[in-house]
Amino acid sequence: MSLPKYKIINDPVYGFITIDHPLLFKVIEHPYYQRLRRIQQMALASLVYPGAVHTRLHHSLGAYHLMCNALIQLKSKGISITPEEELGAKLATLLHDVGHGPFSHALETTLMSVVKHEDLSLWIMEYMNDELDGQLQTAIDIFKNTYTKSFLHQLVSGQLDVDRMDYLARDSFFTGVSEGVIGYDRIIKMLTVHNGELVVEEKGLHSVEKFLLSRRIMYWQVYLHKTVLAAEKMLVNIMRRAQQLIHNGIELSVPSKALQYFLTKKLQRNDIQAALPIFCTLDDVDVMCAIKAWENHTDLILQHLCRGLLNRNLYKIHLQNEPFENDILQQKSMEYATKLNVDGSDVHYFAFTGEAINTLYNLHEERITILFKDGSTKDISEVNNTLVHKTFANPVKKFYICTLK
Amino acid sequence: MSLPKYKIINDPVYGFITIDHPLLFKVIEHPYYQRLRRIQQMALASLVYPGAVHTRLHHSLGAYHLMCNALIQLKSKGISITPEEELGAKLATLLHDVGHGPFSHALETTLMSVVKHEDLSLWIMEYMNDELDGQLQTAIDIFKNTYTKSFLHQLVSGQLDVDRMDYLARDSFFTGVSEGVIGYDRIIKMLTVHNGELVVEEKGLHSVEKFLLSRRIMYWQVYLHKTVLAAEKMLVNIMRRAQQLIHNGIELSVPSKALQYFLTKKLQRNDIQAALPIFCTLDDVDVMCAIKAWENHTDLILQHLCRGLLNRNLYKIHLQNEPFENDILQQKSMEYATKLNVDGSDVHYFAFTGEAINTLYNLHEERITILFKDGSTKDISEVNNTLVHKTFANPVKKFYICTLK
Amino acid sequence: MSLPKYKIINDPVYGFITIDHPLLFKVIEHPYYQRLRRIQQMALASLVYPGAVHTRLHHSLGAYHLMCNALIQLKSKGISITPEEELGAKLATLLHDVGHGPFSHALETTLMSVVKHEDLSLWIMEYMNDELDGQLQTAIDIFKNTYTKSFLHQLVSGQLDVDRMDYLARDSFFTGVSEGVIGYDRIIKMLTVHNGELVVEEKGLHSVEKFLLSRRIMYWQVYLHKTVLAAEKMLVNIMRRAQQLIHNGIELSVPSKALQYFLTKKLQRNDIQAALPIFCTLDDVDVMCAIKAWENHTDLILQHLCRGLLNRNLYKIHLQNEPFENDILQQKSMEYATKLNVDGSDVHYFAFTGEAINTLYNLHEERITILFKDGSTKDISEVNNTLVHKTFANPVKKFYICTLK
Amino acid sequence: MSLPKYKIINDPVYGFITIDHPLLFKVIEHPYYQRLRRIQQMALASLVYPGAVHTRLHHSLGAYHLMCNALIQLKSKGISITPEEELGAKLATLLHDVGHGPFSHALETTLMSVVKHEDLSLWIMEYMNDELDGQLQTAIDIFKNTYTKSFLHQLVSGQLDVDRMDYLARDSFFTGVSEGVIGYDRIIKMLTVHNGELVVEEKGLHSVEKFLLSRRIMYWQVYLHKTVLAAEKMLVNIMRRAQQLIHNGIELSVPSKALQYFLTKKLQRNDIQAALPIFCTLDDVDVMCAIKAWENHTDLILQHLCRGLLNRNLYKIHLQNEPFENDILQQKSMEYATKLNVDGSDVHYFAFTGEAINTLYNLHEERITILFKDGSTKDISEVNNTLVHKTFANPVKKFYICTLK
Are C358 and C219 spatial neighbours (Cβ–Cβ below 8 Å)? Predict the structure, then answer.
């Protein structure tokens, strides 16, 4: 079969995305990649922002598009990048999220608590690499940051990478939260490489500043929106209750075999690689279908939580800057225990506290380096007169309490 | 519980949508309405346009928003509309699509072949009206076009209604097809009522013309895009094969009880109303979950179709202006019968022909009337110098043949 | 002085425009090019669309940007284009409008009636070419269509050139007329070269169709908007009256020497080249400053027209499909002659008729050729099922009458 | 003459602006208001951002549109606003900038140094009020903040007024600087009145934060962009040199009588009101026409500056956080004095220093008050966890040196 020379995909965010290499086609056509169509990028945020139903597949195509642009820029500035490295960086970007499970971050701690999605992405890439006779090796090296030109890894995964640029641009587009709009065009135009590291030219300073602040605003207004938090907690509790019922030997039909596998087994890190092919059949559909089946289960806790999530009857949530007094939780718990006739040890499904954290700029991880016209460089947090000071590098914490409505 | 006075919803298309009446809240919070979150507006179009994953719920909120704007306009021009009529028109718009089943039009002919979705919408409204002590009566009268002020019905459902305006605006937004962008703002500003009928002021002529042409372009470029057609045919064939297997007594596990019900029963029009509560639990999740389960079924036809849809390995489709010679289909069919060892009577799952139709402007249905400054009116197809002539009212037909890749 | 390697310019329409060759800088920095900052692209359209104040300079930068994109596309499809040809095509685009005079088309017939702006552009390019030691020669050859690769000329100036694409995109952007939005991105992606001619791939058919229709809508809704017409007629009449007064020896101070020159001299085609340096100092400012000076002139006709234009007190204009009866004009003329005590031979400044013409697609000029997958080509007007038929190639004419308010 | 009932104006930023009261028409049609068409909102910023050629008229229409929306919001929340107050607030917004002179702020210190444009706006409103038999009285009271409901004044002129919201939205739109985009829709939805003062509901906190930061970014990236600064200094120096030459009795033809008046007279504050009718004929055209005339003046300083501005050959400018050493300026000055044979006392036209100041949030002026759900209020600078701290209220100062290229 002769593959088409190139293919263009309409994207409401960037206009068009061009795919122009047979290996990119093969990867995109792979069932493991197509699975990302069935995983929503923003999990349950669409319960608050109805437009936010875009998928991991769309996001990774978008990040790939920004990577293409960034590579064109860097090459036009004389940075040496071979065609193989270019393809590697594009493939690494396409596949950077291939290890995400259903509902992205929301279920990371429940279904796959022993492994981070980045590790899963790597393992799946390695699996595909075998299938493709090693053609993904450069991509894998870049992804793992073992490739010599570290700026390529920094483009894939860093404080100012194409992943973050795309998700901020895409998430603000689909939510309609104009406060999150970033000038990705300008940032990319200002990228360059200095002493082997990715840096931003001085003229891009305000755009980077804006990028960091948009991220901050998107966290508070969208990602950590209290109703979104409440919905994700409800989803997590549904999975936990299902695991508990199975563990206790209560009959629970799970419509998807893959989901049943992950709910039943207590996988250790060593078991995961063997379970990868099953993991790669798992997506949002399996989880939602189970929840739809369970809304009539005899276990009243499971039933209540499932109906709540399906019909958008979520927890009541309250946020504040200080931790909640233990009394309040205690009191609510007793109230439910009595009123709903729930066992005291199960009342945490209906009343619980927790904390939400937002870091603007992580001083200890990758840094954003500004390159000045005189050739000197500074970390953005040290540039005079920016809004990003060391104090902003401290995580901001909020405390929440969730209860039944 | 005291309901909030008003609520604003972020919408990437219009900015903000305001909900400002308790009855609107109640309807939106109803599980039958919330179900629309799980039905994609454009069914499988996202296989071509990855951004097109927006939902029926989002579309009906959008149409509601345009209705709000249209009512404000008409009132500002002195058209008499009572608060009750206003609320009725808004409710009718919110609920106009509540009768859509999974994958919208794609499965209308398979799962619910005896009833149109408009009838289902009406029946569900009537059901909800009972629950709400008759508060939806005006909405129902407007929807059925039995209400005296027929312009209200024309706003809900006509050649230039808020439904069409929203789906064109929304679908071009989410697909990124800029050719489909319409000037809904301007059209709405130009609406008025003349002799009891909805008309467009002369100054809006070009915007209406553009609206009709955008619709035409969206049909050919998106709704009837050949890959979208191929995917929808595959989905329909999956459901047909499943029905056939069940009918033949082949064991087939259907993860969703509601889907099983509709696949198994041969419902007549009279049975439907009784089946409404089950219908109202059915959505895209049920169908996708079944397809995921069936991709390993022993029936090779079902297996092949399910894997094709999940992994975007669709039919090859060819379109032309004339019908296909019977020979071509015949030949392909025999080829598959031999190669795949498929029964001759089943080979139509792998090779078949059909037609796609697009009507720009339906002369026989509702008309678009232009109001001139001198007080005279004309149907748009009779206005001198427009692109919309009677010839365009003829449906344009294309013929397709689908085969395996 | 070392020139910067590249420069990016913020453009609200396309995001960023990149200038990346020293010769491009030199041309942009030239006073003849900078003059285009002081000529509004849409002349007096801002009297109706207040945002439409963008300049010829901005438009030609935009057309240059689209040319850059088109060249990248063609090269990526294997079309051979040398760096010199690339630079030539870019320069020809940058300079294609450098011969426009004040208020663009509006005053073409008054101040420079013997030469078209395209000829002026060419002569100015040749003048600059001398200054630049022949570095503009390829650009000039492409512009004149004497260069062997005629597709380059077609990109600069044809039925589907970067000039038209930019002015439609830019004019709809700045007017806010969403009906005019075109999918320039997609059209450019679909361009290719076949037998040495610029053609559009079949998949771009709908976008081209949309492009032609947008142009039609922009003509009726914007370029030939009746108030815009009225304003332009008023401007033309102001210049004519000034010429007449000067010719009649009435004292008239003209604040700008350049404008005085062109109002006074009766230039023949042969005189123009000598007058080029003066022409190249003339812009909107000269004309507006004169009009501001003349609003207190003792000639009541001139005074009235100048005040009308400055304070947006324009002619009343009426359009219809048939020519106006001579009686109506006659009657109005006599009315004014009496009421305003104006000489009968001057009454045409206050009451006159004329015609406005709009051609959708010019069959006799350059054609738009569609390339089908099977390698065949067709003129768009011959493609089955498009809206562009030969009938649309006929100009559509409207008749107007202008009178005082 | 019967005025139209309403008129809609296309605006690329907001879609449509509706004018719906005869008095609004009268004011808009007034020559004093129409003059604002000929004053660019961003003065010389278009030398860097070519799209930024929008006018004061367009800005004040935009601010008026936001005022309309804000009033609708407040009324929908039960705030009592009479029709007269509504009209007054709209008129005050329309006219808030009617006192701007040519090139807005750039020439404020040269041509009209003794009066601020706000005072001129007020005096012109009072003048028009006489003409309109007192119909502008409420507007004037609101503008002067003598009207009882002070929130109306705060909407017209405060830390978060429709003026600022429009200029940020409009200026980022026309420059294409996406970093400046603000969520004006959301801010307006969140406005309310508490104890008679304009406040923002808690849910609008992030949008306000974003608004303040966008303003900051627009200042550094656009308003105080070094090339824009350089151009404005050149314009100011041209006017100063012209004044000096006139004062020294050097012959200097000024094409506009109004400009000649203001260049020649040394007006005191008391003289201004008498000079208002002349001021109201002055706009950008007068200034640009003079500069075009002077580019061939025998005074080499004037000639050089005028040519520089017309051909975009501007000062070289350097910015830094500390004041420049006197030596550097001294040295440059001597260099020019020798090389250009310029008198030592005139060398400041070619080499000079100065400072640019940007205040994010002015603690001492109007404040932005946040209203919490519990009914309490706080100034935004005191809200926990915002980026706007008291430290940001301190002005940020940069120092510049301008020299010849």
Answer: yes
Helices C300-310 and C284-294 pack at an angle, to 10 degrees, of: 120
Q: Is the pLDDT of residue B363 over 80?
A: no
Please tell me the predicted confidence (pLDDT) of residue A107: 84
Lowest average pLDDT, out of A107-111, A126-130, C248-252, D92-96, goes to A107-111
Pairing state between β B197-201 and C197-201: unpaired
Taking alpha carbons only, the member of B257, B252, B216 closest to residue B392 is B216
pLDDT of residue A2 exceeding 50? no
Give, to the nearest 10 degrees, the angle between helix A300-310 and helix A226-247.
150
pLDDT of residue C3: 36
Instruction: Give the side-chain half-sphere CA count within 13 A for A222.
Output: 31
Q: Between β-strands B15-19 and C377-379, what pairing exists: parallel, antiparallel or unpaired?
A: unpaired
Strands C197-201 and C369-371: parallel
For residue D263, the one-letter residue type is L
How much is the ipTM here?
0.94
pLDDT for residue C213: 80
Q: How far apart are CA D262 and CA D112, in angstroms?
A: 8
By CB atoms closer than 10 A (0-12, 13-18, 19+), residue C6 is middle
Q: Could you report the per-residue pLDDT of A227-266, keeping only the tens digit for each?
A: 999 999 999 999 999 999 999 999 999 999 999 999 998 8
pLDDT in tens, C37-56: 999 999 999 999 999 999 99
pLDDT value of position C92: 98
Look at phi and psi of residue B39 and say left if phi exceeds 0, alpha if psi is from -120 to 50, else beta.
Answer: beta
Longest dimension (CA), chain A: 71
Other beta carbons less than 10 A from residue D270's beta carbon: 8
Task: For tokens 């709809």, name the residue.
Answer: C172
A207: left (phi over 0), alpha (psi -120 to 50) or beta: alpha
CB D135 within 8 A of CB D23: yes
Q: What percentage of chain C reaches a pLDDT higher than 70?
A: 94
**What is the pTM for the complete model shown?**
0.88
Residue D46 DSSP code: G
Report the pLDDT value the prediction gives residue A41, as an integer from 0 to 100.
96
Can you name the residues that pair with A8 across neighbouring β-strands? A18
Q: Which of C50, C256, C289 sits opposite D57 (nearest CB)?
A: C50
pLDDT score, position B390: 54
Report angle CA D20, D21, D26 to the nearest 5 degrees: 120
Could you tell me the two tokens for D55?
């006018």
Q: Which residue of A has its CA nearest to C189?
A: A8
Structure tokens at C62: 């935009």
Confidence band of B365 (pLDDT split at 50, 70, 90) = low
- Residues in A whose CB is inside 8 Å of some CB of B read 9-13, 15-16, 29, 31, 34, 37-38, 46-47, 49-51, 53-55, 57-58, 61, 173-177, 255-257, 281, 285-286, 288-289, 292-293, 310-313
Q: Which residues of A touch C (CB under 8 A)?
A: 6, 8, 15-16, 18, 20, 76, 185-186, 189
**End-to-end alpha carbon distance in chain A:** 58
Of C166, C262, C265, C258, the residue nearest C214 (C-alpha): C166
Enumerate residues 6+ apart whose C-beta is below 8 A from B229: B317, B356, B400, B402
Is the Cα dihedral C154, C159, C163, C166 positive or negative?
negative
Give yes or no for a contact between C287 and C374, defined as CB atoms under 8 angstroms apart.
no
**D193 has which bridge partners?**
D198
Q: Are A121 and A142 in contact (CB under 8 A)?
A: no
pLDDT higher than threshold 70 for residue D5: no
- Whether residue C337 contacts residue C380, with contact meaning beta carbons closer than 8 Å, is answered with no
Determine the distance from the C-alpha atom of residue B245 to the mean position of all C-alpha atoms in its chain, rounded to a whole number. 29
